[in-house]
Amino acid sequence: MAGAHTGAGAQLRKGDGASPENFVPIMGIKSISGPGISRETADTTDMSTNGWRTFIGALKDGGEVSFEANWLPLETSQGQAAGGFMAEFDKDSCNSLGTWQIAAPPCDGEPDVFFEFQGVVTGQEIEIPLDDVMTFAGTIKVSGRPELVIEQSA
Question: What span, in angstroms and rounded, lies between the C-alpha atoms of 83 and 90?
Fold first, then answer.
């Protein structure tokens, strides 16, 4: 049975839209959060429920994925050129969905594990402090169901 691991070596990868799709890591990543999956509820309370509200599960939301990275201004995976994270803001609504992966760190003898999802880039922020490392943060809104993929090595 596999044990716990640190996040060192994890990757946030952006699909290139080709067929088959190739994934390029966003460089400088320090932390990744999400997807923050949630489910709404629908109130089914009626006159026969003896004073207690009742509910059923309703629509599900894939949530968001956010990350923080060292800002590497010359790194193409973070930039505004085609294929870079910031270039996602240049896409119109018809082309705004992209394929993304959050890959767990590889461990010898264990299968590759990653979340794969469709998402729209919704946020990007640069911080340039006087006395610390410059940072680059981003947010991706998940569209649909994020899929946990476990690939056994050949």
Answer: 11
